[in-house]
What does this fold into?
Amino acid sequence: MNEDRAARYHRLKRQASVAGLSWGVLPLSALLATGASARLRDLADTAAAVASPAWQSGVAVFVYVALLSFLNEAGGLPLAFYSGFVLERRYGLSNETLGGWLLDQAKSLAVGLLLGGGAAGLIYWCIRMSPHRWWLTAGAIFAVLIVGLTNLAPVLLLPLFYSVKPLDRDGLCARLLALADRAGARVLGAYEWGLGTKTKKANAALAGLGGTRRILVSDTMLAQYSDEEIEVVLAHELAHHVHGDIWKGIVFESGLIVAGFYLASRVLSALVGPLHFHGVADIAGLPLLVLAAGGVSVIMVPVAHAMSRAFERSADRFALDLTRNPSAFISAMRRLGAQNLAEEHPSRVVQWLFYSHPPIGERIAAAQAFKA
It folds into this structure.
């Protein structure tokens, strides 16, 4: 593993991530400070006037979200291109063509518009129904939606971006299904996840909940890893379901959403006059709502990462206990680190702010200690 090269790659990716966060904040703030958000609202209201009266408020919200999304996408496209296409190709991690990358961006925009428009419509419906307690109702609805989206993502969203087909290696398929049975995790089946047209990186996952839960192994992993290495990687993924980490994450995320909505409700009530909104249900206040609610999530990122790293360490130990194959775990981690250009020993500050998984070096050291 070329540590210097990996460190440079991740440093540039982190810088792009911070710049992307800044871009998300600055335009929203500018819309509020200049009154441009009110002008976008007026455009949305004009467009919604053609709809029947019963649908006008919902249409206006969707049109406003569409206008805001296009503005954000247009401004953020150069940075997304640099981080998602230029850097990946510069460091030899991408197989994707420019046309394929642009198509994925268009798909992401369309999906984001549908989900964002629907989410905003629900929020403003809650605000109109209960201007003072909307944050609690909206938070409860969003918690249910997170569960539904987690359940349906492998069926509805994943095939939009990747090819997914049944795993055609009978021996490996039987081995992985038997592993899931030993772990006590019911799965629909094992599938080949087509990452190879987009990236040289390897990955595996256990996606979905209940009836949609399925094993996913990337074609890039199938091409280079032994059955034992793939088995121990999947044992780690199984641990998250056995330990209930998915549900713990959903509860944590739901709590963040409720806290964010509560803060947004306080901020909206306080600034509705100074910013000349028509009321808390004025769609022109959406940038303020996003900034306030998003601020809670940003502040809690170190806590979320710390919780995730604890889950990952526990999952590593589960995989070692289940497979009793630390040698395969160590070789898989080394291979993943080299193939995915992972940093082996990032600083503690970097881990605290950016790492949802323990560094590769730490995971290998833990497996070596288990082996000893």
